[in-house]
């Protein structure tokens, strides 16, 4: 195995993704292993790992696989040398759109989290109210 290369098991451990998921992302062209060992094992670099982590971070924000593919293509093209100014500006604009979408989805999730926390708080209040009432009833019955 070459310097800087990791087998899929290490990549899975470091990313928290399953072997199956990593293989699937390869099958659909999102993240291809950078190399193969003599035995045919997939070998990944830190850049591949970063790409997998980017995909993983997009998932809870409900980006589709097609959105993910589009963003990865934008990032790949921006990394190319020799892009003319207009093309670079177009790609930067698309990247800005992804950033705005991610920020909006984060705001939406924060709103959902606030509602969930309020719900949990109210359930706790209800539980305490009912348990205190039940406790008072038990004490009254014991005093009789």
Automatic annotation (TrEMBL):
GO molecular function, one term: DNA binding
Stored InterPro entries: DNA-bd_dom_put_sf, MerR-type_HTH_dom, MerR_fam
Keyword DNA-binding: yes
Designated name of the protein: MerR family transcriptional regulator
Coiled-coil zones: none
Annotated region described as Disordered, given as residue ranges: 125-144
Gene source species: Streptomonospora alba
Pfam family, one: MerR_1
